[in-house]
Amino acid sequence: MKAIGVIPARYGSTRFPGKPLAEINGMPMIQHVYNQVKKSNELFDVVVATDHEMIRDVVQGFGGNVVMTSVHHETGSDRIEEVTSLVDGDFFVNIQGDEPLIQAELIDAIVREAKHSKNELVITAKTLIKDLEDIDNPNIVKVITTPEGKAIYFSRSKVPYNRSGIMHSYYKHLGIYGYPKSILKKFVNLQPSQLEKVEMLEQLRLLENKIDVQVIETTYDAVGVDTPEDIAKVEKVLGGLQNV
């Protein structure tokens, strides 16, 4: 099984235009992400998928692989599906371009799970929510699964609602996905589903169309960059890691 790591990098962003090129400790964010992903032992190759020449030039400048994709894609999944026509592979891992601290170990775990499932499932990840305020935060997507790890539902709401008051753990869904090539092509050609439009979560389109999603658990918790103010948070974490 040939696994390809794909980092979608869109230039246009309402809250943070040119975000992939924002400097973190003097290095473009897209380079931080690329360097982290390249540490993976399970990926056959890593490629940045962008819609802008400036990002292409920066990636080529630091020696990274990059492909130009359409400016009309609405989601990262749509962009990665185009990559499947440009790069040879069987399993494509969608790695967020605004997570400069992404762990190669998580990527490797997703690829190993795909190999274990004979490349027949979509694979994603969850992590235990430790800050109780995050449970009610609609910007933190929650996931519930079967005991075997199959996704039952993703929601911005607090799921499940704990009416009984018994001890229960809540899990945050991490925005990393691994797709078999055939399932990805099927997925992007499906019409947005009703629950997807209500929650504004495209992964619900998979569940509503009876496409199984396997969820692995990790201790990694994403530190994403959504606004310019988030740069300082990442630099603080990087500073702490360098001092260890």
UniProtKB/TrEMBL annotation:
Record Pfam families: CTP_transf_3
UniProt KW Cytoplasm keyword: yes
EC number: 2.7.7.38
GO cellular component, one term: membrane
Catalytic activity: 3-deoxy-alpha-D-manno-oct-2-ulosonate + CTP = CMP-3-deoxy-beta-D-manno-octulosonate + diphosphate
Keyword Transferase carried by entry: yes
Gene Ontology BP, a term: lipopolysaccharide biosynthetic process
InterPro entries in alphabetical order: Cytidylyl_trans (IPR003329), KdsB (IPR004528), Nucleotide-diphossugar_trans (IPR029044)
Biochemical pathway: Nucleotide-sugar biosynthesis; CMP-3-deoxy-D-manno-octulosonate biosynthesis; CMP-3-deoxy-D-manno-octulosonate from 3-deoxy-D-manno-octulosonate and CTP: step 1/1
Subcellular location per the Swiss-Prot or TrEMBL entry: Cytoplasm; Membrane
Keywords assigned: Cytoplasm, Lipopolysaccharide biosynthesis, Nucleotidyltransferase, Transferase
Catalytic class of the enzyme: transferase
GO molecular function, one term: 3-deoxy-manno-octulosonate cytidylyltransferase activity
Record function comment: Activates KDO (a required 8-carbon sugar) for incorporation into bacterial lipopolysaccharide in Gram-negative bacteria.
Family: Belongs to the KdsB family.
UniProt-recorded name of the protein: 3-deoxy-manno-octulosonate cytidylyltransferase
Organism from which the protein derives: Cytobacillus kochii
